[in-house]
Amino acid sequence: MNGHVFVAITVDDGTVHIMDFITVGRGSVLPRGAKWVREGWWTREPTNENIFAEISRTYPTWSSSGRLVNPTGYKIVALEAIPASRGERNLLLRS
């Protein structure tokens, strides 16, 4: 496990945002759905419930154009599948 799961999130303005959902972390606060594995270190599974909770905590948010956006769907994607160009990210959820 590398500690990261990448999530492509579609929002209501038609764009796709990428979220790095951390599955292994360190800190004094336990994220929702996580459990302590040793002092200061936690882990959590990338379940639909945990991912949805993280998305709900993050959205709504402001887009780069200054518009308030809300999520409409999401999909777990491989890092290699994420296009470098933001304009091509909407293709992630069509496959």
Can you tell me about this structure?
With 95 residues, this protein is mostly beta strands. The protein has one domain. It is built from one helix and eight strands. Strand 4 and strand 5 form a beta hairpin.
Map the helices and strands.
Blueprint: E1 4-11, E2 16-22, E3 24-26, E4 34-38, E5 41-44, H1 48-58, E6 61-62, E7 68-69, E8 71-77
Antiparallel strand pairs: 1-2, 1-8, 3-5, 4-5, 6-7
Task: List the keywords.
95 residues; three-stranded antiparallel sheet; mainly beta
Tell me the span between the first and last alpha carbons.
25 Å
Category from helices, strands and their pairing? mainly beta
Helix content: 10-25%
Q: How much of the sequence is in beta strands?
A: 35-45%
Oligomer: single chain
The Cα radius of gyration reads 14 Å
The DSSP helix count reads 1
Average pLDDT figure: 90
Sequence stretches where pLDDT stays below 50 over 5 or more residues: none
Quick overview of this protein structure:
Helix content is about 10%, strand content about 40%. It has about 100 residues and is mainly beta.
